[in-house]
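The pair is quoted verbatim as follows:
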Amino acid sequence: MSLKLVLLLAAFGLAKGLTEVRYDNYKVYNVQIENAKQLELLNDKEQVLQLSSWREARHLGESSDVMLPPQSQQDFESLLTNNNFNYSIKIDNVQSLIDAQRPKKRTGYMEWTQFHTLDEIYAWLDVIETRYPDIVTPFTIGKSYEGRPIRGIKISYKKGNNAVFIESNIHAREWITSATITYFIDGLLVPRNPGVRDIAQNVDWYIIPVLNVDGFVYSHDVERLWRKSRLPSDPTGKCIGTDLNRNFDYRWMMIGASDDPCSDTYAGPSAESDPEIHQLTSYINNSIPEGSIKIYISLHSYGQYVLSPWGHTADEFPEHYPQMMGVAKGFSDALLRRYGTVFTYGSSATTLYAVSGSGKEWAYGVKNITIPYTIELRDKGELGFLLPPEDIIPVAREVTEGFVGMITAARGIGVM
């Protein structure tokens, strides 16, 4: 069965459980963008060459990570050479990395040496809810388009704490995010060092390990590199899904999002068109005491960034930008000291690229949450979305250290 036919069947909901999309001999290229003509040329050839963007250059002097199927690679390399692009091949065979992510044998329990399915994560949530009833309060914000519950937990040791809200795996293919945050949850429940014990006992944590549940299941069962939700986007049935991190009702569709239903950055037909985002914002609005959330985190990969508002403009900064940078520095410095991993911090528009309709923008612009971030986990692009299972614990440990530094810095400026 051809890849095109598989994708078409998947779009009509017929491929689920039948055929897995494979990426044999797909390559990922890193392409330096040095002038406007090169940027325009790369964008123009996206559909023709079946180019899939992993990380997009939005400014001159930056580079893009793009994936291409075998049949397009010769034409693509000719295009790059003929137009004086500087490029390198980062990944020679994408499928080999996907195969390395698949456990040879599923353990059936959480141990962070393999990437887990939604069912396994939910079974683990059942266990910890039963084991720690005085600390863990389960919640469900609602159901996804395909009818799956979107589950979260609140971890609270005592009344009166300020709160951090974390949503993870809003982009389906970013498996390292749910793996990292479940490890962090485990650390809060069984603190192994004084710093983690402090932030566990003196901060309330609202955490949704997998927000994009439909896309996450699809990325496990059918198409590993699927990003969006699974809500049909196009009356013709050819295009499926919304980029949920462009679907929030703040500066929706202003910049850094697409109105093309086939695009990976499609923002949806309207703000909060997808039930996942509508129910997330409704839960925060109606079920969490107003003003108690002091930090909002949208956990992503990859690139190693701590990104604050604004995303829609590089010409102005929010009122609390100095505080945002101080707390971001606390996160970055803490894990750099302990593990030597570098995280760059700044506003989205000045540090990475312009974006609107994202979770952190809504958190600040609508809910007045002082410290909102998109945090992009490892790596810098060597393996991108396909980190091996052995990276889970190192990534999770350094992020845990970063959260300790973040809370310490937030207290230092009176936020927590």
